[in-house]
Design a protein that fits this description.
With 298 residues, this protein is mostly helical. It has a single domain, classed as Ferritin, core subunit, four-helix bundle (Ferritin, Up-down Bundle). Helix content is 46%, strand content 3%. The chain contains ten helices and two strands, in the order H-H-H-H-H-H-H-H-H-E-E-H. It has helices at residues 20-26, 28-31, 36-48, 57-85, 109-112, 130-133, 140-162, 168-196, 215-222, 283-297, and strands at 228-231, 256-259. Strands 1-2 form a two-stranded parallel ribbon. Helix 3 runs antiparallel to helix 4 and helix 4 runs antiparallel to helix 8 (168-196).
């Protein structure tokens, strides 16, 4: 089962100007082949289907715990997309074409299908494909090797999207996820090394560019986020510390399991978009809801 905290894993920069095309590019980091939906659902189903977790508990704990963190990653990418869309259109009567901006946007689905918000599709509007994107062979080494590959593939796409837009909302989110994705790649590498003796960390980073080259990532590394595995549970997944220990290969800092999630930041409140009929609740309905809540309190 899951608990939910009504926060993002970080505080996103405030949105200044809408950028529907940046939002379209960022969609790849949510619903693309190497997007956060893929990392989430690969690790989630591997944890659901894990065999002999009583005898292989450190590996189960690692995969299951990272899966829990990934839930917050899809939330964070979605929040970034939503922020990038705020103000993309202006209210107006239907005959004034208030959604005209959507006509020239790279991803018209944002305007037609989701009222200018995120959905698990890629940068071109194709839906995330769980049947083909989830890999769960049942073989522990093979699944961990796939996860290592998935993390470095995701890192490659994040860097490419970073280089497509200078929007601070997109870059702030990407900077954080570069650090957390690097942590997960190292964790899977260490798990593989413990099983096979192969020193996977010698391959990192892929691509061969350090996170320190990205200012938005560097700020989190200076806070030590690259060496932390957060334990997203009240009292479980403690044995992942058997794998996640020792020194970080980049700076020789001590790897650490942190009990509980990161401090996090507030989830931005999305304004109404009357031209999309969202949320479609007028002032009279708002007043009725307020009265109903007051009566319940009394």
């Amino acid at each position: 089962m899951f608990l939910r905290i009504n926060k993002l894993q970080i505080e996103l920069p405030a949105a200044k100007d809408p950028s529907p095309n940046a939002a379209a590019a960022v969609q790849e980091l949510l619903g693309g082949r190497f997007g956060e939906m893929s990392t989430l659902m690969n690790y989630m189903y591997q944890s659901f289907n894990f065999r002999q977790r009583d005898k292989l508990k450190p590996y189960y704990d690692l995969v299951a715990n990272i899966a829990a963190e990934e839930l917050g990653h899809i939330e964070l990418v979605s929040a970034a997309i939503n922020n990038l869309m705020v103000g993309a259109t202006k209210p107006g009567d239907p005959d004034t074409t208030p959604l005209r901006a959507g006509l020239d946007a790279r991803n018209t689905m944002h305007f037609i299908d989701t009222a200018q918000t995120a959905k698990p599709f890629n940068s071109m509007g194709a839906g995330w494909d769980g049947a083909n994107f989830v890999f769960n062979s049942g073989n522990l080494v093979l699944d961990l090797l796939h996860n290592f590959f998935l993390e470095v593939g995701a890192r490659t796409h994040k860097i490419r999207v970073y280089q497509m837009t200078d929007n601070p909302v997109a870059r702030g989110m990407i900077g954080y996820l570069l650090v957390r994705g690097g942590t997960h790649a190292l964790a899977y590498g260490k798990a593989l090394e413990s099983l096979t003796g192969v020193d996977m960390k010698k391959m990192l980073p892929i691509p061969m560019i350090p996170n320190a080259k990205f200012p938005e990532a560097r700020q989190y590394e200076l806070k030590g986020y690259h060496r932390f595995l957060y334990r997203f549970s009240i009292d479980d997944y403690k044995d992942m510390g058997i794998i996640w220990n020792g020194k970080h290969p980049d700076d020789n800092s001590e790897l650490e399991v942190v009990d509980g999630p990161p401090e996090g930041g507030e989830i931005p409140i999305l304004p109404e978009v009357p031209e999309e009929f969202a949320p479609g609740v007028d002032q009279g309905m708002m007043d009725d809801i307020g009265k109903m809540l007051l009566n319940k309190i009394k």
